[in-house]
Write a structure and sequence with these properties.
The chain has five helices and nine strands. By secondary structure, it is of the alpha/beta class. The chain has one domain: Rossmann fold, CATH 3.40.50. It is globular. The mean pLDDT is 90. Bound molecules: 1-O-pyrophosphono-5-O-phosphono-alpha-D-ribofuranose and hypoxanthine. The site of hypoxanthine has 7 residues, from strand 8. Pathway: Purine metabolism; GMP biosynthesis via salvage pathway; GMP from guanine: step 1/1; Purine metabolism; IMP biosynthesis via salvage pathway; IMP from hypoxanthine: step 1/1. It is found in: Cytoplasm. It holds the Pfam family Pribosyltran. This is Hypoxanthine phosphoribosyltransferase.
Length: 194
């Protein structure tokens, strides 16, 4: 896996340090509130797992999975729900936990949907904020890092479902995705590199 990474953007230590800071801010801001951390599957799983443990408040965890159609590195803007929340949110302060905001399309769809369920409040915390012209402008209340407009993987972020288990965030070599990949093709090329 590591040989497909052009540059390590954020090390494990940098990620953990920032998550500890975000945890402290969120602990201060939500003291006394009924907080629900809403994680977006699958990319936000490592982030929400570490962030939840950095927040010193009673809180609930729930997850939504949404899929956006597109090719492997570009979203198309058509989003649909694959897995919904387990219960209502009208008595809760909801904090959406995202791994990355890129075009803004996924979050725009989620915010629109969740607002209609009347949460007590709705805010967004994203580990990464990609520096690019958004297709949809979205509010970000907390974020860890602004990153350049490059395709990144690791710490939950994938390319063709791979690389999510890298402990750092790195820029993927463009040669890996220069031809349209399938998980099978990528597995094959990784096996050939061993
Ligand atoms: O701002 P956008 O351009 O919409 O991109 C951001 C979204 O894309 C990724 O999810 P993806 O749909 O790839 O699903 P995954 O989390 O399962 O990888 C990521 O986890 C964000 O949810
Ligand atoms: O840069 C990215 N990497 C992985 N998944 C993503 N989804 C949107 N942008 C990205």
């Amino acid at each position: 896996m590591h040989q497909d990474i052009e540059e390590i953007l954020l090390s494990e230590e940098q990620l953990q340090e920032k998550i500890a800071d975000l945890g402290k801010q969120i602990t201060r801001d939500y003291a006394g509130d009924h907080l629900l951390l809403l994680g977006t599957l699958k990319g936000a799983v490592p982030f929400i797992a570490d962030l939840a443990r950095a927040i010193e408040l009673p809180l609930e965890l729930d997850y939504m999975a949404v899929a956006s159609y597109g090719n492997s590195t570009q979203s198309s803007g058509i989003v649909r729900i694959i897995k919904d929340l387990e219960g209502p949110i009208d008595q809760k302060h909801v904090l959406i936990i995202e791994d990355i905001i890129d075009s803004g399309l996924t979050l725009h769809y989620l915010i629109d949907l969740l607002k209609r369920r009347n949460p007590l409040s709705l805010k967004v915390c994203s580990l990464l904020n990609k520096e690019r012209l958004r297709i949809k402008d979205v509010p970000i209340d907390y974020y860890g890092f602004t990153i350049p407009d490059k395709f990144v993987v690791g710490y939950g972020l994938d390319y063709a479902q791979l690389y999510r288990n890298l402990p750092y965030i790195g820029i993927l070599k463009p040669s890996v995705y220069s031809e349209e990949a399938t998980p099978e093709k990528t597995h094959k090329s990784m096996a050939e590199q061993k």
